[in-house]
Design goal:
With 95 residues, the chain is mainly beta. It contains no helices and 8 strands. 0% of the residues lie in helices and 37% in strands.
Length: 95
């Protein structure tokens, strides 16, 4: 299924951090923090006040920093995504 976010929204696939347990303690999923990084899967169509299309600062494939809270979690074809506004993204990780 293909999804195109509406407006200035960005569809991001969170990058799960590798699980590490110190001293053999296992942390349940409900106590783990949400991932702070993700890969952009799709972008919407952003427009200015006059209705002219404006380019996004991020593009498909970029690795971005996600806000700790905010956005909407959606599940598409069994994969979890975060749907956020572009202005809520904290930055792009450049390699």
């Amino acid at each position: 299924m293909k999804i195109r976010p509406l407006g200035d929204r960005v569809l991001v696939e969170p990058i799960e951090e590798k699980e590490q347990s110190v001293g053999g303690i296992i942390i349940p999923d409900s106590a783990k923090e949400k991932p702070m990084q993700g890969k952009v899967a799709a972008v919407g169509k952003k427009t200015d006040k006059d209705g002219k299309e404006v380019p996004f600062d991020v593009k498909k494939g970029d690795t971005v920093l996600l806000p700790k809270y905010g956005g909407t979690e959606v599940k598409i074809d069994g994969t979890k995504y975060q749907l956020v506004r572009e202005e809520d993204l904290l930055g792009v990780i450049e390699k």
